[in-house]
Every structure is written in C-alpha cells, then in structure tokens.
From TrEMBL:
Positions of the RsdA/BaiN/AoA(So)-like Rossmann fold-like domain: 7-392
Signal peptide: none
RsdA/BaiN/AoA(So)-like insert domain: residues covered: 190-339
Pfam families xrefs: HI0933_like, HI0933_like_1st
Transmembrane domains' residue ranges: none
Domain of life where this protein originates: Bacteria
Keywords: FAD, Flavoprotein
Necessary cofactors: FAD
Protein name: Membrane protein
Amino acid sequence: MAATRCDVLVVGAGAAGLMCALTAGQRGRVVQVIDHANKVGKKILMSGGGRCNFTNTGTTPANFVSANPHFCKSALARYTPADFIELVERHRIAYHEKELGQLFCDVSSKQIVKMLVDECVEAGVQVRTDCAVQRIERGSDGFHVQTAHGMFFAASLVVATGGLSIPSLGATGFGYEIARQFGHDVLPTRAGLVPLTLSGTHQQRLADLSGVALPVEARSNGMAFRNSLLITHRGISGPAILQISSFWQPGDALELDLLPGQDADHWLRAMKRERPDAALRTVLAEVLPKRLAQRLCEHWLPDRPVKQIDEPQLRQAAALLAGFPLVASGTEGYRTAEVTLGGVDTAQVSSSTFESRKVPGLHFIGEVLDVSGWLGGYNFQWAWASGHAAGSVV
C-alpha cells in the first residue's frame, strides 16, 4: 500500500477535528482526516437529543473548567458563536434558541455533520473512517503514522481524539497515550456533566420517585446552578445536576434549594398566617411535585397542620427547603458523561496555536485538552474555536 503524504494529518473526525481540517484546507493545505470509527461526528449526531446544541450565544471563558482558566481565552475570542452561526446560516440550516443562549437545529444534528463534511470536501480535505492508528513516530521530515489504511507522512499532526465520555460511541483514551508518548503530562481525568448516584438512606427514600422533576438550585464548592432536577432509579440527573457534577467530587457537600427564587422562611410564615389549618404536605404540593412533597413530610419535615409548627421547627423546615443536603455517592461515570474533565496539560500547549511546547508540529485540540465547558453548547464552541485556531496555523 502506497504511503500518503500530506501537510496536515488530523486524528479524530469529530467537531474539533473537522473544523481544524476545513480551516487548514481553505488555506490551501493538503489535509487528511482519519478516525477509527465507522462514521464521522458521532458525538455531534447524538447531541442535544439528535438536534445538536451547536453553540451558546453567551459563551465566555468563565463557562469552562480547567486547571488554567486563562488558556481558553485566546481561541474563544478569535472564533466566536457569531462566526459559527454565520457558517450555519450560509448552509441554510434552520435553528432556534431553547434557553439561556443555547442554539439547536430545528431539524437534525445530521445537518451540522453534513455542513462540516461539505466544507471539508470543498476545501479538498480527505476524510477516512475505519482507519485506526497503529503507530506514530517522528522523523526529521515530520510524523510517520502507520494506520489500517497504510502509512501517512505529515508535517503537522493534530490530535482531536476527544475524551473518555460515552465509550459506546467509540471514545477511548488514545489521545492521552499520544500525549504521553511525546512527553506531555495528562491531568487526572473524571466524568463531567454526568448524573449523580445516591446510596443508603437518600436512595431508599427517593428511588421510587423516579421520573419526578422540579426546578432547583444545586450548590457545591462555591458554584450554583439553577435549572431542573430529575430523580432517577439510581440517583439524580437533569441540567442542574449535570452542571454541578463538574464541580462536585465524592465527599463534597451538595445542597439543593427546592424553592429557587423564593424565600422559604418567608413563604412558610405566609402559609402559617393565610392557611393555618392546611397540612404542610398540602401547601408544599402546590409549589413542589405532590409525591415529593409527601415524601419530604414523611421523612424530613413536620407532617401536620401549618399552625402546629412552632418557631424552631419552622426555621428548621425553611432551612431544609432552602438547602436540602444530599449525600451523593458517586457519578454514573463515563458511560453517560457528556464530557471528560482533565486531560492534556495546557501548560505544555500554546494557547494561540495549540502546538505542543515540546514537539514542533504536534497540536492538541478539543476535549482531549484539560478544558471542559458547562452544559449548553459551550463544549461545541470550544471545539470550533480550538479547531479553527489550530487550522489557521498548521
């Protein structure tokens, strides 16, 4: 099998890899993209329930988690949500804002993948699937990459392999192996944007409420997210929980404000004045899901008419509603995690070119790096921005 020569070899045909490839191709570079999976953009296809939450109009560096919070600033400033929206509109893809700046396709995430592939084709980029990497070496003329499709010789090698989240889509730690091979440090990885599991008392008391959802404010380690919570058979999920999961670790305190936007103490006192004969579970069921209100009064709150709740009990009940303490035992893990926290140490990578500070011509982009976004389109914006930054220089 004849060797393939190119200027740029991108390993990984996901969001970051395809953006990097099309950007480099538009500059006249000879670009090859390879992926071990059987089709491109698998994570794009399943994201947002098949509608792809492709960016967030409110993206700022503050929406990302990294050991170096400054690393993401340069790329995000140079390729903004408006830049990607312009590309989406040029391809006549209809979209809508769901909430909090989150943009979704009206029809299907397949449109985003097709757009990226079409841009690659137009830029002369060749994309190969079912092409696993077997060996990478660096020679005087660049990188020698042995694959299932033969040998590739490339001046620049871009690692866009993603993280460990959702292994059923083909996620592996291969990018971290490449980083270590070339002397890079990889910061400890863990699942992020992931449901939390409960055990013991909390799990026993809440498990049969599976399917109950409500708005909450979830708080841990100085961070707070107001959105919905979903009780599951194994624990808790929903956007508020996925968000806080990136800041919580086993053993950390986790609190839920069950009446977000309301003063629980003020509300309870109002109920005591206005509806003294009503049972607490009855008035609670008007502001919380009925089954949850009943369960709270069975185990945590006074199950009696509001007028019978004395001052200490009232203060205690208000504190519980405003800061319900949950002891989570762990997470659902990479199986359902939307991102991988940790990854290739950004201290050894240029924030403007994404080139390794150790090995000229080697670049890392997207989720393989120690940069993870919040829930809501931020991780895609990081993929577009980091891919564009590297694609502009390789």
